[in-house]
Structures are given as C-alpha cells and as structure tokens.
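Figure 2 data, in text form.
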Amino acid sequence: MEQTLLEDWLRVASSPSSSSPERSTQSTLDVAANAVVQAWAEIRACVQSKNLTDAQRAALELLFRHRRSLHYADSQVKLLLALMADVTCTDPSLLGFARKFAILGVLAWVRKRYSGIAIITASNAQKQSREKLASIVQTLQKAMDDHPTSDAYTCEGVLLLGVVCSLATVPPDLRTLCCSLIGVEFEGRKNSIVRGPVAEALAGAGYAMSVCQEHHLASIFRPMMQLWRSYADLTRSENSAYAPYGHQQQETPPLKDVIMILHLLDYLGTQFLSRYSHQEPAGIEILCDEVLKVPVHGVGQEVQSAGLMAAFGLLRSLYRYNPGNVKGGSAKALYPKLAAMMRSLESFVHTVSEQVVALDVSMSTFGSTVLHGGAYADGVFSRTQNMLLMRCVAVGVSRCPKFRGSPSILRCLSLCIFEDVLRLDAVYSAYLDEVLSGLVGGRQNMQEEVRVADDLDAVLVAFQVHTESFVFQEVGALARALCEQYRKSGEYEQSETVKYIWEFARKLQSSHRLFVATSGKPPSPTGLSHYARTMETFLESAFLTVVVFYNTAVVKDAGNLSSAVELAALALDTFSFVEYFRRLQVKEYVEVIKSAVTRVSDSEAGSVLLVNKFPHYNDVIQLPGPSHLTLTYDWDQDEVQSSRVLFYFRLLPLCLDTLPDAVFVERVAPVLFLYLQHPSEAMANAVHALFGAFLSSKVKAEAAKNRRNSKAPSVSNAEIEPDPFLREQLAVYYTERAVELFPDVTPFKGLVSGINAIARYLPAGSPVLVYCLSRLAQRTEALYRNEVLSEISARSLQEASTQTESTSVDGRKVSIEDMGVAEKLQALLLHLILIVDLQVLPELLKLAARLVLSLPVHQQTAALGEVYDIVAVSDDYTRKPSIVPWLQTLSFHIFNNQRQGKLAPGSRL
C-alpha cells in the first residue's frame, strides 16, 4: 500500500473481485521532446500575458495526456502555480481544465520532492520548504474560491491538500489549515465532488485524516458520510427525465464509489492500529464512535450505505490486527477495547441488515415488483428502496470473511444474489408479453405490438448493462460469502436458505423452459439473438453459484443425519433444474452429486424422497405458462425439461436397491416409457439403461444374500423385495414399445441392455420372458421380410441380375456396426441362448430355429456360423447338453436346404 498512490489503490480495491486490476492511466506512448518543449513555451507565454485562449488548448491537452511521465522542474512549478491563480479566460471550461492540469502537476512535484523526507535539519532548508508549501496551499485556496470554475477541479484540489497535510515536514499550523479546507470543501462542494473523480477526493481526505488532530478527524468524516445524500438528490432530478419503461435508474450512489469508503476506512484503521497506544486517544476509536452515530432510521439509504461501508472498513482492519504486535503498551490492556469496538460495529451492521429484511419483506415477495404489460416503474434490477443497502451489506460481508454471522446477514446475501444479481424475470416476462401480443391479430393490436416490442428492447438493453455492472461481476465473491455465512448459521436458517435456493432454481428452469419453447418461432425484430451470448454467460453464473453453495452445504457441512438426507435430495433436485445451463464439468459439481447420491441411496426413505421430486408425467407433456398461451408444444423438442429428466435417469439406477418397486412404477415408469420415443440417442440409451437397472435391482442383492447364507441383511434392504408381478408387467410393455420403435427410434445399444435385463432378471420360467422373446423374433422376421421386399423392388427397378451376394456368404465374421437392422436383432436373439434360464431355453431354441430356417439359404449359413461361434466360447456345461443336439439338427436342415438348392418355405414371398 505504501508503494501505491492511495487514489489508485482505492480504484483497484473497489473494483470487482472477478476483474483483473486495471492498468494505470498514465501514458506510456513516446512523445517528441520538442513537442513537450513547445507546449511548455505556450504555457509560459500564456502566464506572461495572464490570458488563456483556445490557442493553448492543444498544448494543455498534450501535457495533460502525458502528465504522469513528465518531469516537473522548479521553474515549471512556478508556471503551474501562476496558471492556477493568475491567469484568466473567457471560457470557464478551458480555465477549469488548465487549473486541473496545474494542480496535478504541482501534486506530482510535491510527492517527488518531499517523498521519504522525515526531518530537514538545516534551518534555511526548513524555512524554504515551509514557505514553498504555504505558497502552494495559498495559491490552491485562491483557485478553489473561484466559483463555479473550481467545480472542475475540486477533487484534485482536495487530493493536493491531503498530500500536503500528510508530509512530515509540514508545520502544524499549515496542516491545520489544510484539514480545515478539506472539511469546508466536503461540507460545501458535495455536488462537485460526486460529479468528479471521487477516488481523488477520498484519498485526499484519507491522507489528512491519518495525521490530523481529533477534532479535524470528525470534521472531515461527518460531511464525508453526508456526501451521498447530496448525490441522491442530484441523481433523482436527473432520473426524473427518464422514460417510464425499461430504463434502469442510476444507482444512488454507485456501489463502486461507496465501496471506496470501505477501503478508505480500512486504510485509516490500519494506519491508526500500527501506532496504537493506550496512553492517548486513538483515531480508530474516534472513527468507531462517529460510525456508530450514523442513524439507522429516519435518514436516506445513501447515508446508511456510507456508514455501513465505513463500519466494514474498520472491521477489516480490526480483524487483520494482531494485538501481540502493539508497541509501547500492554496487549492485554488494549485488546478488550478492540474487541468492544468490533462487537459494536458488528451490531451496527446487524441492525441495518435487519432493517433491510424487515418482517414486511419476505423471501417469497422480496423484489416482487415485476413487469406487467411491459411497464417498469422502478427500473429492471432496482425493485425496492432498500436495494442499495442490501447490496452494501452483501458486498461488505464478502470483503470481511471473518464477519460474525446472523440470520439477517444470511438472508441479505441470499436476496442480493438470487433476487437481484441473478434474476431474469424481467427478460422472461417482457418476452412473454411480446409473444402474447403477437398471437392477437387485428389492426387494433398493432400499436400494442409496437409498444411491447419497444419494452422488450429496453429490457434487453438494461439486461446487457446489468451483466456488465459491478454487482454482477461480484457474484463469485458474494457466493463465497454466502457459503461462509451458511456455515455460521443455525439449522433452521440453513434449511430455509436451501429451500430458497431450490425455489430459485425451480422458477429459473420453468421460466427458461417457456422462453426456449416460445423462442423457437421465427426471430422477432427485437434482435433477441444479439443477447444470446449475454444470457448464456448469465445462466452459467447462476449454475456455478448454485454448485458452489451446495458444495458447501452437502460436501463440507453435512449436518445431522435426518436433515442431511433431505438436504441431499434437495441438492440433486436443484441440480436437475440447472442441468440445462451446465456448459462445463466442474469438480465441485461431481463431488456434490457423489456425496448426495450416497446419502440418499442409503435408505428407503431417502430414495423415496428423491423419486418423489422426479417430474410428473403431466409436467413433462404440458408447457408451463398462462392458460391463454396457445402454442403447439412438442415434449420431445423441449431441451430444458429433457435435460432435467436425463439428469434423473442417470441418477436413479444408484437408488433402485432401496426403492420399492411400486414407487418406481407409479412415479418413474410413465415418464420412462414416454421417453422411449425420444429422438435423442443419449436420452434413449439412458432410458433403456434405467429400465435394465430397475430389473436388476434388489435381485442382485438377494442373490448375494443367499450366497452369504449368514446373518440378516442390512437394515436398509431387509424389507425391500422385488415385486415379480410389477416387473413382468413393465417387461411386456417395454418390449412392445422398444421393439416396435426399432430401428427408427430405439437405439440398438439401448435395446440390448433392456432385453438383456429381461432375460437375466425375470423369474425363472416366466411366461412373460417367453412372450418377450417371441416378440423379438417376430420383429426380426418382419424386418427380414421388409429387407427382401426392398431388395426385390430395387432389382426390378434397376433390371439387374437376380444373383444376390452377401458379405457373410463366405463365412467371414461381420461386426455389429456393419450388420443390417434385422441381422442385429437376430444376433441379439441368438446371444440370449447363453443368458436365459434353463426352463425358458427350449422355447428360445424353437424361436431361433424357426427364424433361421425362414431365411434365404446363404443367410442361414451365416446364422449357423454365428451360433457355432456363440456356443464355442461358452463354458456353461449345464446348458450345452440342450444346445448341442439342437445345433446339430439345425445344421442338418440347413445342409439339406443347400443341397436341394431352394429357399425355405418361410422365405418365399
């Protein structure tokens, strides 16, 4: 901090945590030396004539642009002092610009000349130094008294006064004068300060307050706290000219400016604590008393926000302070005072935060002034009069990680993040209004359409501005603070926060689902696509914020067992809502899912709790939105809802061993069979895999239990048995739909997993299994017939030779990928010979023989070779006695067909 100018440090420290530090504004461009010399010559001529004209404007702009890289000699400082006070000009703006440059030039000279000088021993040197500084202050005072020209350089003047005041060589009377002038400027020139570079004015006040007497400390601090009230009056008058729709009002005061107060007080607290002594009053105690005097009721939020940030700044310095480093006093005697100050400042913050989240502002209604008919009265993202205070509390806590937690602080953070920073209701509502207005025809509706379109444009522009704002760029730090406060809160507050974030995710997914469904129409003239990347960035931020929070809630802070299961289920359901917004694989995301699934799947209650959150069938096939929204809705084109369903389909297999079959059939099966028809291969494979996992669940656990033949099974699985009747019902329905939709919809990989599970896990000798196998064989025969018909039709159209060749006639093995659709089903049916139980095996062999003998001769040979390969690699000697005679008989029939040179009767079409 010592190596950086205070005004520059305030700018960097008050920038968003996620942004990279801005480079200094000083110019690094080369400038010709003769150009600089010529510019100084013009300034000298101007001073000699005591008249500034437009001819010197270019020279001033050149010198101002390179002011930080210039070397200022004593002779040039004399020119600057004369330019500051003795030159006149008919153009007030040009004169103000010239004096601003003069002040900054003198400031640079003072810093360089007196840097590092503690004591000047020579009396002549001391006298000359004091006279020079007094001359500078006197000249500056004269320039500051020139109203209204001095409005252009008030902040720079305050900075120069503060720097002079902080010099070790300055005499006490001159320091007192500088402090008095700073207090006067803050008291009487508030509008000029807030319109100018605030960092310079605050830095000047900071330099002065760090070295001034006690009474001057309060005289500067008090008007500084009132500075923002004047700013509010100023911006209200400017905002009154704004159009009523879609325009976001200016924040009063800007959050970034208020945060400078926090870091200024942090700087002052650090300076005072570094020389803390219990033998004399300390500046930090005075500042603490002044902060606590800021009223929390009866004043505008502008004053309260400044007081809040001042409190947070002092707390930062106190939290960082180590009482063991105290010089000249007892640490034990000093520490109680500091602890009392911390408690008082924390109580002040808690009082303000409780005012923000008063009883009449609940989580469900906070910021509920949303768009209706396209009208915004209070701006898009500023919905309540406490919005600035809420942001100040949230940002202040994010910059004070050690701040003591309370329910109101946790609530403020939650509201700021999810009701203010990550809220998209305005965009969704405005877009829905445009869609609804477009559905109403007639000339009388043309004006309404134009108005609504204009409203949407305004909302989108405000949304773009919001995503570039300070508070949005600070969302990562706010999320971290939310996690820290969550850990410090009680179980009730934690539970309420988890439910609140779940509700946020649910509403976001529902609104975005409607938005995506309606935006599938032709692009509107509003240019919505222009903001697509901005919205994507916004939604990614929402996703990452949810992940960061639940990583703390689920992985790092498990809580007690009863609430941990409910928390895990809510976390997984919340993740399902934001799954559509995930664009990258985050390590914390995987950790939360693993931890939550482990907790949920450990018990029947946990699995049932999770499955009860699975979307209902009616929610899937119906589009959310107002009843008068008449749009054609295709559930299989709803990517947002499909992402949520797919998330569950990938999780549920891990919970099926502790989930009763009846619950699965009631809550999951309807949606599962619906999504068998989904065109996405990833979705279809997940559906088939889930069905296979359902049939295999609890059966494997039962088999393992029987093999152990020992003590009773675990409590979680002891009372959960598979329901054969329900499973057979689902197997029949699954086979009907999956086989019927193959190959157009059902992927072969998914079908294999489902049929394989049916063959393995249905009860031994089940007639349902025989039925499923017969349906598979029938579908295979139908596909072969379709292929033959297509082949005959193609040959007749092309008048080609009747000689047909096959890639498998020569006995070469064909991969599954190279097979036709009928061959794939045939291969699946033949491989089931080694899987089905022995009671069903004879029926399967009959079906397989009938299918093979119905094929053309060359395909019979290929099928026979495939059966030989399947049997040859098997070491199952319990079923080979049944398979080998069957295989020999099948081979005999095929050999006879080849010798007779004719097709099997079933193949003549």
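Caption note: The mean pLDDT is 82.
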